[in-house]
Amino acid sequence: MKKVDFGFDREKGTINCINMFDGISYREILFDDIEVCHLPSLSLKKWVEEKKDHQKHIHAIMQSRDFKVTAEYEIYDRGYVICTFQVETLRNNTFNEQLKVGIHLDKSAVFSHGYDIRNNFEDTTFRYNRATSVNFTTDDRIVTNSVDFLLENLKNGKKVQIENEKSVFLGWEINLASLNEKGNIYKNRWCVAVTGINNDKSNVRGQRIYHFNGLWPRVPDQETMIEMAEYGCSVLVLHMPVFTHIDGSVPYDEKQLIETVMLAHKLQMKVLFYCQPALLSLSSPKHDELASFINNNGKSRWNSLKDTQ
Questions:
Q1: Which of 113, 140, 203, 240 is deepest in the core (most CB within 10 A)?
Q2: Is the distance from CB of 140 to CB of 154 less than 8 angstroms?
């Protein structure tokens, strides 16, 4: 199931919809269109759309008496859009506003339950000047969706958060006096990324993982494993003491290890081994066989003086 749908207004050249799956239903999170950048009286002059593998490409040109805006949209199925744009001044003008770039989010959809605006404007908060983000939940579940908006070039740009009655604008105001003069060009690029939770059945999410790391006993006994299963264990991770060497090639007690794995499977638990592929015991039977793969550039260490951990 596709988790995020982006809608485009082909009459204006803007993103007019972000329909996000929140695990139960789809929700529209935009309050107003995502314009390439906010300039008055723009009208669409050209629209070309093509599909490439898992991407969609849109070429759009918007124009007013004073400005020409060229936009290249790259839309990815995974839930994000990249827009590379250029503003060209067609004639001398008296435009004296700050250029706004950002996203209008619907208050009822995004901010009516738990939310956290990250990378915001408080001095006490660690922030990124080129990113503004919201983590939010759409109901009382303790789950998180996210919307991220990034702007590449911040020259003369100031991050803003503007609250309206039914929406919040997150983005930047850019001071561009140069847009008053004919022939001047401004270029930039932004990205909007959306993540919605997925309540579909999953073999990965929601696992309860238990680690067992002991020198004696080297594996959990039957009573302990039954207790693990009782508490919902779905994955049992055995650490390296179950092997004679760090490489994980020779079991310390093969019969015992087989019995442990079989009991785990009977209790509907998967079994993984906590290995250290960057280490290889000098006394391991596998050492000579794998010696040619030793990395000598100083970034990895394959040799270990210990037989076991």
A1: 240
A2: no
